[in-house]
Specification:
By secondary structure, the chain is α/β, with parallel strands linked by helices. Helices cover 38% and strands 20% of the residues. The protein has helices at residues 11-22, 52-59, 78-83, 85-106, 139-158, 192-200, 228-240, 245-248, 264-275, 299-304, 314-326, and strands spanning 2-6, 26-31, 46-49, 68-71, 110-116, 161-167, 169-171, 174-175, 181-182, 207-210, 222-227, 250-256, 261-263, 281-284, 293-294.
Amino acid sequence: MRLLVTGGAGYIGSVVTALLLDAGHEVVVLDDLSTGHAEAVPEGARFVRGRVHDAIGDLLTPSAGFDGVLHFAAFIAAGESVQRPEKYWENNAIGTLRLLDAMHAAGVRRLVFSSTANVYGDPDVVPIPETAAVRPPNPYATSKLAADHALTGFAVAHGFSAVSLRYFNVAGALRRPDGSIIGERHDPETHLIPIALQVAAGRREKLQIFGDDYDTPDGTNIRDYIHVADLGAAHLLALQTMDDQDSRASHRIFNLGNGTGFSNRQVVEVVRQVTGHPIPVEMAPRRPGDPAQLVASSDKAKRDLSWTPQFPDLSTMVADAWSFMRR
């Protein structure tokens, strides 16, 4: 297939682009490099620099021959979204709507959307099924949920075959057959594992853990971690279920996680073991809106997409991320 990947210069977008290329697909990457890196775009993909809002009409045309779109272009910093909600609504929600309009005009109706488990807020039930109530705790999550609602509307009105994949915590790096490795690089970094690895590498003095008085065994937050290679594989499986568009016109939602939770303290201890370095920790107050536990039920993805995580061990995720950071 000929596929457009928006945000393909970012962490997850570049990993999925690599997997698509390795599977024999033709890929065009659209990214404005506001948070991504040009060198992260895998060799073999055509790279177009630009925003979804500005460039999508020139790329997605009836004559371009695209078979589908994988949409990763979004801002993801929940804390920043509270301070700058307009940035997240304009980029994440309006940008997605512009993309859907262009897809409709071009006759492209396959879409895999990068969503987030953050839409569930503080859940009533753990592990969290797709039927759980959604309570987005910040503008980032709300903008993603708005995009989900737009997908549902386009599926009904225009026969789209859309899949939203709600990620839990993503970690690790993709090791490719040619020996290259694709990993996580955010600036500033906000995710626990890469921050802990930066401490191990001497790039930071210490790691902050926000809250040690939660109702969990060790008092710190519990999160579900999924290897980025397993996450990427789910996108290709989602595409495979869209081959018969007439019978698959729908919007389906899947949670992606391991179904196993690790506390912040457990994560730090694994980083110590993998790297062999001390990780000084400073306890800080809770962050507003941080749930005590977020753990996925991925039964639906396993059943409907035939998806099973191949790298569920947290040590493997940390070791792969550490290899990428050192390289």
